[in-house]
Structures are given as C-alpha cells and as structure tokens.
Amino acid sequence: MGVCIVGWAHTRFGRHDELDLEGLVDAVSRQAIEHAGVPAADIDATWLGNLNGGFVPDNFCSSFVLNADPTLRWKPATRVENACASGSAAIYSACDAIEAGRARVALVVGAEKMTAVSGEEVTRVLANASYVKEEARAGMTFPGIFAQMARQYFARFGDHSATLARIAAKNHRNGVANPWAHVRKDLGFEFCNAVNEKNPIIVEPLRKTDCSLVSDGAAALVLADERACRGLQRAIRFRARVQVNDILPMSRRDASAYEGPRRAWARALEVAGCKIFDLSLAEVHDCFTIAELLAYEAMGLADRGAGARVLDDGTVYPAGRLPVNVSGGLKAKGHPIGATGVSMHALAAMQLAGQAGEMQVPNAQLAGVFNMGGAAVANYVSILEPLR
Q1: For a disulfide at 140, which of 26, 135, 187, 263, Cβ 3.0-4.6 Å?
Q2: What ranges in 176-288 are assigned the alpha helix state H?
Q3: 3-117+214-229, which class in CATH?
Q4: What are the φ/ψ torsions at residue 153 (nearest 5 degrees)?
C-alpha cells in the first residue's frame, strides 16, 4: 500500500524571537491536522525531525507534537536525527511504519530553533555533524568543508565562482515569490558575484551569498496510506523514495564526487520508472551554492564538470525544462536544520496539488526532492506525484 501526503503546514523561516522550539512544533502540528481534514484521533503515531545538538536545551522533545490535540496523548512519538536530513529521515520513518501496516495515518514535523544561541555556537554545533575527530576537532566548519569541495571542483574544472553567483542570484529571485522564505529579495548576479563588505569571503572561494541562512522554522506533513486517502481533499503519492548513506570521514572519500547523491538519484528514478526530464520540478539541497552545482550533475542534468551548462541554457530556471528550487531553496528560504526536509516535501506537494501560489510551476505532474545530511553523507531522494 502506497503512502500519500494529505496535508501540510509551514511557518515563515527566519528569526522567531516570539517562539521557542515547542511553539514552532505546536503551530505547524495543529495547522497540518486541520489542513489534512483528518481527525487528530485518527493519527496513529508522530515523528519529529530535529537536530538540536545544543541549539536549545530541549533534547527530549518528541512529545511536543502531542500538544496539538488532547487525543494525541498516548500515541507513539519519536524524534529522529540525521543531520541536515533529519526532516526526511522522520518522513521516511513514518512511511516505513505505514507500509509495514503499523500505522495508517502519521503526523511528521520538522523543526529547529537556531537563533537562541550565538553565531559562533551555531557554527560549532553544525561542525559536529562532520567526522569530529578528523574534521571538527581540526577546526573545520561546514563552510570550510564545502569550500574545500568547491576548491577541488575548481581545480578540476576551472574557476566557477561566477557560476555559484548565478545559482545564488537565481534562488534569491525565486525566493521573492515564497511567502515562507527568510529572505524575499532579488539580490541580482552582480551583488552575488562581488566580494565586498556586504558580501565578504566566508571561506575561500565561498562568499556570504554562497551560504544558506541560519533560521528558525518548522514544517509538518500528514501522511496516510492510500486507503485512508479516500474522501480527503488531496493526496500526493510517494512514487519512489530512496535513502543512500556514505561513510563519514572525508579522508576516505572524494566528497566533491557526490557519489551518494548520484546513487540516490539513479535508484529513485529507476524505482519510479522515469527519467530526470520527466520531472516537472525539483527541490534540491543547496546548503551552499556549490552543493546545488554538484546536485545538477548528480541528478543527471549534466556531465561531471558541466553543471554550469544548465544555467547557460536556462534549464533550471522557473520557465526552463526542469526548474530547480523554485521555492528559493535553502539559500533564500532558510535552513532550520530539522525543518528542511519536511519543508522541501511540503513545497513539492503544494506544486503537485496546484496550490503553490506565485511559485506555481504550470501543470506540475512529477516532482523530485533531494535532501542531504552532512557532506553528501545521508542522501534522500523522493519522487512525488498526485494520486488524484
């Protein structure tokens, strides 16, 4: 029995001084249940995707989801962590339970409160999602890790700083149409391509505009098996979902080869019985602009080293053959870690339901989602389609 998305909710991503982690979780949990049109009592279990790692003191937060309705008390509640793919990990855990027959309806929430600590502490927490004893303890940060991947790419295929700026400019332009985006401002290529006080180098060659945003936020999905979808207003089906994990130490692999994402995409397209250009759109993990460039090649849009071509020919722009990150991606939308994977699936589902507002891709029939944890370590690719 297949699994469908039947409802969703999404906060604005950004700084939320008025909401703690519990408040973020509660807001989207209630809204998603209402949007799905499913009685809360029919929800069999809940999952929460959340990294934490020191952002907030609430390590044991799975039961926050149960606050949404009194009938959720006594239901199983589980927190899931898989770095920046924690949201997708929570979704896939719920899908596993539904496919196994242990649940018919599930509520999945992804949430992160990142701005309650200093920028230095955010950097430290995120660095601990690397191979700590070789990377974080050696002073590497995630901007440093992805900068290293960019330098490796540039050494092999030439300086693509301008290509990265084009990706940043594209996603910021797209983000203007996203009401939930952290930054809704078209920054333009010239600004993104410059190095100055407003756009400094973070770690060579990555500039500030090459890096995703530190954000608070939450998103939620209600999932149901196909039988439980009868009579509901919407049903967006998982046609395929694939998880591929690589080993953690970068010293033992070429992270810039993006082998894990490449394998995840190939397997997902095989399971779905489709080709990459059968997709109407894709939401991909652009924690840094180099990540989106590498994703183009991992998806099969371009050969290795030739990802810039899909910007040259317009393929990945909103009116192109395969629009990528019409939501603005992590770059403009923001990247509250645990919320990201759930947000990406929610936004893809909105597109397939024809309910994406100004972001809407005309006649969207098939959507790809690629969410990644670490430096191409935990890789999740979903192919979604309308059930009806």
Answers
A1: 135
A2: 189-193, 259-272
A3: alpha beta
A4: -65, -45
Cβ–Cβ under 8 Å, residues 201 and 190: no
User: 335 exposed, middle or buried (CB, 10 Å; 0-12, 13-18, 19+)?
Assistant: buried
User: What's the token pair of residue 41?
Assistant: 């009592």
Whole-number Å distance between alpha carbons of 303 and 354? 32
Tokens of 288: 């840094």
Catalytic positions: 84, 335
- Rounded to whole angstroms, the Cα distance separating 100 from 311 reads 42
* Residue type at position 181: A
Q: Which one-letter DSSP state was computed for residue 72?
A: G
Question: What is the residue extent of each domain of the chain?
Answer: 3-117+214-229
89, 106, 234, 327, 365 from 68: Cα distances, Å: 22, 13, 22, 27, 32
Amino acid at 301: L
How much is the pTM?
Answer: 0.98
pLDDT per residue rounded down to tens, the chain (388 residues): 699 999 999 999 999 999 999 999 999 999 999 999 999 999 999 999 999 999 999 999 999 999 999 999 999 999 999 999 999 999 999 999 999 999 999 999 999 999 999 999 999 999 999 999 999 888 989 999 999 999 999 999 999 999 999 999 999 999 999 999 999 999 999 999 999 999 999 999 999 999 999 999 999 999 999 999 988 999 999 999 999 999 999 999 998 899 999 999 999 999 999 999 999 999 999 999 999 999 999 999 999 999 999 999 999 999 999 999 999 999 999 999 999 999 999 999 999 999 999 999 999 999 999 999 999 999 999 999 999 6
Q: Which residues contact 111 (CB under 8 A, 6 or more apart)?
A: 21, 24, 25, 28, 48, 49, 50, 217, 218, 219, 336, 338, 339
Cα separation, 9 vs 343, in Å, equals 9
- CA gap 277, 301 in Å, rounded: 8
The Cα 288–Cα 298 span in angstroms is 15
* Token pair for 50: 């959340």
Q: Work out whether strand 77-80 and strand 45-49 pair parallel, antiparallel, or are unpaired.
A: parallel
The rounded distance, in Å, linking the Cα atoms of 298 and 376 is: 11
Query: Beta strands of 198-346 (E only): which ranges?
Result: 201-203, 206-207, 217-225, 236-245, 281-284
